[in-house]
From TrEMBL:
Key words, A-Z: Cell inner membrane, Cell membrane, Membrane, Transmembrane, Transmembrane helix, Transport
Originating species: Hydrocarboniphaga effusa AP103
Transmembrane segments: 173-193, 225-242, 379-399
GO cellular component, one term: plasma membrane
Name of this chain's protein: Type IV pilin biogenesis protein PilC
Amino acid sequence: MAQALTVKEHTFLWEGLDRKGAKVRGESRGPSESMIKTQLRKQGINPTKVRKKLELFGNRKKIKSGDIAIFSRQMATMMAAGVPLVQSLELIGRGHQNPAMAELIMGVKTSIEGGSSFAESLGKFPLHFDDLFVNLVDAGERSGTLETLLDKVATYKEKTEAIKKKVKKAMTYPSAVLVVAFIVTGILLYFVVPQFEDLFKGFGADLPAFTMMVISLSRFVQDQWLFILGVVGGSIYAFFYFHKRSPKMRRFLDRALLRVPVVGDILYKSAVARYARTLSTMFAAGVPLVEALDSVARASGNIVFQDAILTMKDQVSTGQQLQLTMQQSSMFPSMATQMVAIGEESGSLDEMCAKVADFYEAEVDNQVDSLSSLLEPMIMVILGVLVGGLVVAMYLPIFKLGMVV
């Protein structure tokens, strides 16, 4: 497989003359102006003007995994229709609405025109095309079944994107509840409670303990709001910083999330579905099981599952059956293990893994919908307790005064 690029590529606008002397223009990706001129001459174009394209940071859109999934399906459709590879890339790249994605596609096209294979060209952009994607395309090119393999890649990407969105929805809903509750409480403590405090100063009587506690909390929020925002913002930044760079923290967090009620079950089943879907796709492409498990581990999305799959890979490499290693890892449900055992015995491991993936993807879908229905009343309860508690604390002195009168 091709190594990742160490030289940064840029987009160049060029003008030139073709073999018939006609003026042509376009844009290409490459590390330097001289390299672009060399590429153009190989294509029979005599370059007259080459300049680097101005790239404004504010106008660039980030390339998302969904963009790669759509690109996979577009390429599969183009190849199935008999459109040549380079022409397919040209059509998709020119028509893409995301400039960054368009440049990526044109970069792949330029690399192919320079003599590299499709897989090698994709491998030059490892941030967007992982080893699994590149390996499948490479297998398709070697076996002459690129059209079929691209369809499998597209299906795999679409399925994994769908499961990611479901998991994201399951995680976003509780987080949104907490954020809304935090913001509402902060607004009440900073703006509303002080108005009641001024009112209570004229009562000339001792306030209830609950009311005094809320007033003290309100004073703290008013005096230290910058400190509170700094702590919250710093904590969020530190969390994402160390989660990205610390395997120990990721391992602890992934393990802890799997034990969270409801949400943990969704994450667990989504990891099983991703494992089965990736293994099915790799095995159907003819990738050896040991090599496939290496890619499956990196695509698992959970470091606990990743560790378990890498251990299974070492065991499989010594001759053990996959279903036995799954049993020993204790990370997989019995249903998935039994289906894999049937697949190994019947020689249809890819089909059985695909059925496992379909089953658990449907389970995740149902549980996310159930979680949404469950959280709606919980949101009302949480906000009701917070807002209602503050309201009661403010009105207790008024009730007490009414009883005295």
